[in-house]
Amino acid sequence: MRVSLNWLRDYVDPVLPPEDLAHRLTLAGFEIKAIEVVGGAWDRVQVGQIREVKPHPNADRLRLVTVSLGERSQTVVCGAPNLNVGDKIAFASVGARLIDGHSGEVAALKPAKIRGVVSEGMVCSEKELGISDSHEGIMVLPGDAPVGTPLRDYLGDTIFDIEVSPNRPDGLSVLGIGREVAALTGQGVRMPGVAYAESETPVASLASVEIVDPELCPRYCASVIEGVRIAPSPEWMQRRLKAAGMRPINNVVDVTNYVMLEYGQPLHAFDYRRLAERKIIVRRARDGEVIVSLDGVERGLNHDMLLICDGREAVAVAGVMGGLDSEVSDVTVSVLLESANFNQAFIRRTSATLGLRSEASLRFEKGLPAELPVPALRRATQLIAETSGGKAASGIIDVYPGRRERQPISLFNGEVGRLLGMDVPVERTRQILESLGFDCEMSAPSEMRVSVPYWRSDVGQSADLVEEVARIIGYDQVPTTVIAAPIPSYEPSPVLLLKERLRDILVACGLQEVITYSLTSLENLKRTMPDLSLPGPMPLRMANPMSREQEYLRTSLRPRLLLTLAQNQRYEDSVKLFEVGRVYLPRSGDLPQEAEALCAVFGGASQERSWRAKEAPVDLFDAKGVAEAVLERLGVDASFVPGEDAGLRRGRCADIVAGGERVGVLGEVHPRVVENFEATGPVYLLEMELDRLLPCVSTGVRYRPLSRFPATVRDIAVVVEAGVRFQSVLDLVRGFPLVSQVTLFDVYQGDQVPQGKKSLAFRVVYQSPTHTLTDEEVNGVQQRMIEALKDKLGAVLRG
């Protein structure tokens, strides 16, 4: 919000220098991003008046202009087309620093000899002064400009660029900032006087208003001004609009923009004669309905948008932009002026869907009070009548189905001290609140009943009132005190600790963490299935999606992670990614269950390129090794059993079982799923449900001393059926006494092994914590082990 200090002075008398005032406003919650001084560089530039214009003796397009500067006159050469005797202009004497109209560079003005005539000065355009880009002619000042006065004193200004927080829509108005300045400096606020003559024609006989959807439009007000003449708005109004960053258009449109900036209430002017049946209807749009907006673009509408219509068709998108067919033009003679209140969420949705942000929608979507339309309407009606020569019909139309009464708030002075940690006298509290426009009534010596002014829609409880007191006193004045109550003890969150441990382990395993959006699309979820069906029940849809790609709450981490893998495969040979985050599992008649999950994907080369290692693609055992590292570091006693998952390849999928239940899945992503994401296969996936994994995680570390006695190592090779899993062999061998470690180092199927069988070679480490083992002890254990393998798994010792 750009606020002109000159404009602000209409309502309050700031007693502080601009820099100090900006500092106070920033401390009060209105951050000043920048201070722009208009006219700060206008040294040696004065208000002048053209006294005489003569032809140049040696040039057809140049003229000699004599300018009166009060006590002296100066004749200069000028080629501007709009030189008229009697006009007030801006005159720069030699030495003034101006902007070159062609190069845009700032340079000091020097005497020049132009076609034989010496010219010591210049009649300036707006561009040369840095006011605008206009340099087609000289800048003509209003007739009341005092001749001889430094231009800085007449047109100079200070512009505050203010960052307004979303909860303070009143700050998007000059009056709103004026109220803050008044409270901070102890001044009073002067409200603009609103008085205008009315015709004898009642406004109700000229127009009618119907609100079909009162929940979307709590209030709609309108006035009618007849006999208007469309022309440029007054110079002072144009100057203020430009200072606020708005382009002047004509007197009627400029008034609506001016009052929007002044009061914070958007307004819209319709050409009254172009409204069918002289009627205004506020309703939802019909799916497929179209409107051509003021910018000339045809826009498709849907049922989730609110329209302003006449008796036949839509004439505006409510709260966003007017329609082209009903705009005020040079032939307009009567105006219907709209000042309404709309549902803020609806306006934001409409604006986002249409991709159309306007100054009006910016204010409506922050939540404007329903009491604001009437004072803003009367002010705008007054200004249109004054600037266009029209006359307002008697009264205003005010349809107000959403009327609500705001109840006073009880504020105890002890609450002020408790929340601020400092003693504030009750009279000081009352004085601060009243300076901000609150009505205070003492109901007890230390209690007051506070009525909130209509423009402060952000205040709803006593804590908000205490915040107002702190803002005006100054947060920097609140003393630092020791907390009276004991500091609560730290209560660790097991889930958060588990997530952090998982991140550390996976990064140590060479994976990179990614964080993807919690929102996805149905199409993306379906791509995780080979047949493009929806995995599981319908996910929860957002009421206000930002885009089609972010429409539903994710039920799995897989879609975004696989998409990220595919995108990274274009640039990397080896891609190993993981994400730890929430998934949202739908529940009938309730909010979705927010479950914590881990998902990791592996694709490309097993290792980064190196001269030492031969390049090999990632395989299932790379993913399994990561899973085993995670489980081991967490102290989880888990096993891998054959499983099935619709998104993974059959026969290359295993369930991770711990504590008697499935806590995750591991396997190769189905080739058709890989194709769906346009990735390069094969791709492997590891997924764990943290809510099920957490009870199995070891909470402590158990110490077991290393044996000081030597180990004995034996290699064994057995032939088993091809379908026998090594996990079965491992579980059986580990069950024998003295066995401390078992490692598989070879799997063979070929000519020397019968068809349908395979050879498993593994190393067994025997060790005792109490003595050195003898060959007889080891041979005895190993013999029983071989017999058990034969009896239970049909294993035969390979010769």
Write up this protein.
Helices cover 26% and strands 30% of the residues. With 799 residues, the protein is α+β, with helices and mostly antiparallel strands. It contains 21 helices and 42 strands. Strands 30-33-34-38-37-36-35 form a seven-stranded mixed beta sheet. Helix 7 (251-263) runs antiparallel to helix 10 and helix 11 (413-420) packs across helix 13. A hairpin with a 6-residue loop joins strand 7 (97-99) and strand 8 (106-108).
- How many E strands? 42
Count helical runs. 21
CA radius of gyration is 40 Å
Query: Please, what is the average pLDDT?
Result: 92
Look at the helices and sheets and give the structural class: alpha+beta
- Percentage of residues in helical conformation: 25-40%
Largest sheet: 7 strands, mixed
Which band does the percent of strand residues land in? Answer: 25-35%
Name the quaternary structure.
single chain
Keywords:
799 residues; alpha+beta; 7-stranded mixed sheet; 6-stranded antiparallel sheet; 21 helices; 42 strands; 26% helix; elongated
